[in-house]
Amino acid sequence: FSASWCGPCHAFTAQLAKLYNEVKADGKKFEIVFLSSDNDAEAFQQHFQQMPWLALPFDERTTFEKLKEAFDAHSIPSLFLFDSSGKFLTDDGRSCVYSGAASYPWGLF
Predict the structure, then answer these.
(1) Are 16 and 78 in contact (CB under 8 A)?
(2) Short-list 55, 3, 50, 65, CA closest to 34
(3) CB 59 within 8 A of CB 40
(4) pLDDT of 7-20, one tens digit each?
């Protein structure tokens, strides 16, 4: 979860993109889906252009709200990690990112 108007989100997105590219370059399985807290589609698109991963389309607001509530994602940036079967692992993905790509999969899998 992130938004274009959130300063900390921009800093975290840059670090996450670096980690994402490093993990992918090592041939490891890793994917991200961006969920936008932006107020309009144009802001979403501008922010999403910085990201090498997937995104929930901005017009899927009902799905966004359901996911936000399901994961209690009321602060941004937030990063939730799941394994390849969809099993929830942690709501503290930010700490994992800060530990770096060399630590992937961060002892979670």
Answers:
(1) no
(2) 55
(3) no
(4) 999 999 999 999 99
Determine the straight-line distance between the first and last CA of the chain, rounded to whole angstroms. 22
pLDDT in tens, 30-45: 999 999 999 999 999 9
CA-based radius of gyration for the chain: 13
> Between the CA atoms of 34, 90, 13 and 86, what dihedral angle is there, to the nearest 10 degrees?
-30
* DSSP per residue, 45-68: HHHHTT-SSEE--TT-HHHHHHHH
Alpha-helix runs per DSSP H in the chain = 7-25, 41-48, 61-70, 93-99
